[in-house]
Design goal:
By secondary structure, the protein is mostly loops. 15% of the residues lie in helices and 12% in strands. The protein is built from 1 helix and 2 strands. The chain has a two-stranded antiparallel ribbon. The longest helix has 10 residues. It is rod-shaped, with a radius of gyration of 28 Å.
Length: 67
């Protein structure tokens, strides 16, 4: 019979406590999180105003008084 050797697992601290990682999985680092944010599309800093003038005015398309 062969003796089973315990596999040393990596752990990572979380707000809920220490978590054991599955073998082959590595912890997400701050560098990984920052790279994900850098690759994300840019978002506006303030809410954008609707472009309701001229060709882009969707409310003007509802006017049927021209026909």
């Amino acid at each position: 019979m062969t003796a089973l050797h315990p596999v040393r697992s990596e752990t990572e601290p979380t707000p809920k406590g220490e978590q054991v990682l599955i073998p082959g999985v590595r912890a997400i680092t701050t560098r990984d999180r920052l790279a994900l944010l850098m690759d994300a599309p840019m978002r506006p800093r303030a809410a954008q105003k609707p472009l309701d003038i001229g060709l882009f005015d969707e409310a003007a398309r509802d006017q049927l008084d021209l026909f």
